[in-house]
Write a structure and sequence with these properties.
Belongs to the class-III pyridoxal-phosphate-dependent aminotransferase family. HemL subfamily. Pathway: Porphyrin-containing compound metabolism; protoporphyrin-IX biosynthesis; 5-aminolevulinate from L-glutamyl-tRNA(Glu): step 2/2. It comes from Pontibacter saemangeumensis. The protein has helices at residues 5-17, 72-81, 93-105, 118-133, 159-162, 173-177, 187-196, 222-233, 252-257, 283-286, 305-320, 323-346, 371-374, 379-391, 412-429, and strands at residues 39-43, 46-49, 54-57, 111-115, 137-141, 179-182, 201-206, 236-240, 263-267, 277-281, 351-355, 358-362, 394-395, 404-405. It has a seven-stranded mixed sheet with strand order 4-10-9-8-7-5-6, with helices on both faces. Strands 1-2-3-13 form a four-stranded mixed sheet. Strands 11-12-14 form a three-stranded antiparallel sheet, covered by helices on one side. It is α/β, with parallel strands linked by helices. A hairpin with a 4-residue loop joins β2 and β3 (54-57). α2 runs antiparallel to α11 (305-320) and α3 runs parallel beside α11 (305-320). Bound molecules: pyridoxal-5'-phosphate and ligand LHPZP3FS. Ligand LHPZP3FS binds at residues 24, 26, 62, 145, 158-159, 212, 243, 402.
Amino acid sequence: MKEASNSNELFKRAQHSIPGGVNSPVRAFRAVGGNPRFMVSAKGPYLYDEDGNQYLDLINSWGPMILGHAAEVVNEAVQKAIPNSLSFGAPTRKEVEIAELIVSMVPSIEKVRMVNSGTEATMSAIRVARGYTGRDKIIKFEGCYHGHGDSFLISAGSGAITLGVPDSPGVTKGTANDTLTAPYNNLEAVNILVEANKGQVAAIILEPVAGNMGLVTPQQGFLQGLRDLCDKEGIVLIFDEVMTGFRLAPGGAQEIYGVTPDMSTLGKIIGGGMPVGAYGGKRALMDYVSPAGPVYQAGTLSGNPIAMSAGMAMLNFLKDHPETYQQLERTTASMVAGMQQNMQQLGLSYTINRIGSMFSIFFTKEQVVDFETAKTSDTALFGRYFNSMLNRGIYLAPSQYEALFVSTAVTEELVEQYIQANLESLKEAQA
Ligand SMILES: Cc1ncc(COP(=O)(O)O)c(C=O)c1O
Ligand SMILES: N[C@H](C=O)CCC(=O)O
């Protein structure tokens, strides 16, 4: 059992001045029990908390720390940029360079606009789609999460479902009515929605690989089917690659599946850990954005020079080192193979979904292909498993409805430690 008195004390204090004691709900450990650990530092594969505990980190700041924490290549770029001022509120060379880099790497992006978070990216993308098409409605998928913009807090995944509020109060009926929802991987349901709302749907937005109901991959033909439908009906197809962009491949999930959306939203990795998001797409759509076009979107700190430096360092590294993706694939495949062997040894048969360096275990025998099947997972068992792993120094996402992210800092020795902790925790959690 890990000592956590300093974290517990801080969490108690935090309740007085921060809602729920945290600055983003899923961090509060509500779904798994116990108190969150307050972190002090991180290096490579490890996090260190206020009580001096070390954890093997499988969240990696929800994805961006693809090279592990405090990666030299990113830190050096940030340190070099700091003396030149933290913010200008005026354009810089770096913004041009990172835009060119993103355009060269992501198939769907001909022009890109930097923002400060994934939430801003998705909110802005649907505004552009609405402005461009002159239509109001959007289609999203149950269990997909696109940040906390009003239009997306309908059947939302991630922290929203973890805390039992997939449809948030505070979203007006008008906004909610403009968001239509369909089950993930169900093309037929989308066809029916589009037919019933003919000429009214501006955009279909989805995570091309869903990571916010646990990890769920698109079934054969699903993404292409959406592409074909959008082409036929003049709907803007938006891939939200805030999690998958640059993580699954230099060109994200769209590169892997060979389906090119009209617009893409990005985040996390393009800031190398700094608060950054971006949206981009076809020239005609992006030229609708102010000041080139009429759709207004702005940001005082957008294109921040420190964040751009961190992002440039990260993206350049990934572009120049394609072997990174093979390494991540090998490491994560070994971790998952070890988990499968453990289950066999214990006579258990839970579902593990994986693609590249993202994976989730669901405590169900069912194949998990959408939100309904994700919800068949035994979340109480997940909570016990989570805490068991935490006590063994493995830091997982504190919710069933999240994906895990592996970094290149995970060595073979750490894979072995992880597999051993998984074996013991699977056993312990059955009780
Ligand atoms: C797919 C996806 N879209 C959008 C967001 C929102 O990003 P942010 O938390 O940076 O606002 C997230 C993560 O939170 C995400 O996983
Ligand atoms: N699923 C979210 C990010 O991808 C979780 C992060 C958060 O909401 O704080």
